UniProtKB/TrEMBL annotation:
Claim: DNA-binding is one of the keywords in the record: no
Family, as annotated: Belongs to the Gfo/Idh/MocA family.
N-terminal signal peptide: none
Residue stretches making up the Gfo/Idh/MocA-like oxidoreductase N-terminal domain: 5-123
Organism domain of life: Bacteria
Domain (GFO/IDH/MocA-like oxidoreductase) ranges: 135-251
Xref: Pfam families: GFO_IDH_MocA (PF01408), GFO_IDH_MocA_C3 (PF22725)
Keyword Oxidoreductase among UniProt keywords: yes
Protein name: Gfo/Idh/MocA family protein
Taxonomic placement: Bacteria, Bacillati, Bacillota, Bacilli, Bacillales
UniProt source species: Alicyclobacillus fodiniaquatilis
Length: 327
């Protein structure tokens, strides 16, 4: 019988119910054991609805559950550090929702806590487990689109009608850069395979939405004159795209963070490259389990999340100070 990683879920967030729980259910290696909420009735209802055997009325009770090996944390951003560290101290491996923390300093504290406890820590960027990414890297390495000149990505949506959304609470880590700007930043680092040098971001802060950044436009500088330009928004028409521009052609993805094909254009000719349709959340769970079981190292170690938070720190500082920030 194959090994199973026994999962507990800290919280009943929408992303957990909509994507991560179903993903673990269909994963090869995962077994959902329990879910927790500070409201037991909410945990019990979610457990019943999603076929989870146990419900706990507190996060502490779930961490004390000896039948659980790993926890997924979809809590609001300001709670990520506390509950990651507490989970590590309880001997649980941690898959924490993006962004990993509020600052790079917090992310580093989380990394160190998990290292001391001997548990694995990963940031839940599901798109990075899609085999499409490796196929894109193969095209880049082949030289088909020439040298990379730049990357542009747009990730926007409009949810202004929900005024009680945690994304609109500044002290909880709200705002578009934390929520979705982190995706283009992560993707640029993934495809360029290097860390950026500086960030310049201009943002629209809304005093009717907790004074968080509801729209941000950024320039992230990499070596060799290459840059990521991006925009992210929670108060704009929906878009989800990424383009890698080369000296001889380009690669285009839409949707950028959930699709299964991409377009390559060279010399005025375009072709669609199809990749397998997969459940990115199931692949994320399986790849995390591989790291826990020691079969392979984590595809993205926690140091990667620390580096991504350094860029986010610079973006937020730039948007606030209206100036270019070195990373």
């Amino acid at each position: 019988m194959s090994r199973k990683l026994r999962w507990g879920i800290l919280g009943c967030a929408s992303i957990a119910k909509r994507a991560v729980i179903p993903g673990i259910h269909v994963s090869k290696s995962g077994e959902l054991v329990a879910i927790a909420s500070r409201d037991y009735s909410k945990a019990s209802q979610t457990a019943s609805e999603y076929g989870i055997p146990k419900a706990h009325g507190s996060y502490e009770d779930l961490l004390a559950d000896e039948t659980i090996d790993a926890v997924y944390i979809p809590l609001p951003n300001h709670l990520h550090m506390e509950w990651t560290i507490r989970a590590a101290q309880a001997g649980k491996h941690v898959l924490c929702e993006k962004p990993l923390s509020l600052t790079a300093e917090e992310a580093e504290a989380m990394r160190q806590a998990c290292e001391r406890a001997g548990v694995q820590l990963a940031e839940a960027f599901m798109y990075r487990y899609n085999p499409r990414n490796e196929r894109i890297k193969e095209v880049l390495r082949s030289g088909e689109i020439g040298e990379i000149r730049g990357i542009h990505s747009s990730f926007t949506f409009n949810n202004t009608g929900n005024r009680n959304n945690v994304r609109f609470k500044r002290e909880w880590g709200g705002g578009s850069i934390y929520d979705i700007g982190c995706y283009p930043i992560s993707a640029a680092r993934l495809f360029l395979e290097q860390e950026p040098e500086a960030a310049t971001v201009h943002a629209f802060f809304s005093d009717t939405h907790g004074d968080v950044d509801m729209m941000a436009s950024g320039l992230i500088e990499f070596q060799g004159g290459v840059a990521l330009t991006f925009d992210c928004a929670m108060w704009a028409a929906p878009r989800n795209t990424l383009e890698i521009l080369g000296s001889e052609g380009c690669i285009y993805m839409s949707p950028a963070f959930g699709g299964h094909d991409f377009t390559v254009t060279t010399k005025g000719e375009s072709r669609i490259v199809a990749t397998p349709e997969v459940n990115q959340y199931a692949l994320q769970a399986d790849r995390f389990a591989d790291g826990v079981f020691g079969d392979t190292p984590l595809l993205f170690p926690p140091s990667d999340a620390v580096n991504n938070m350094r860029v986010i720190d610079a973006c937020l500082k730039s948007a606030s100070a209206r100036t270019r920030i070195l990373i």
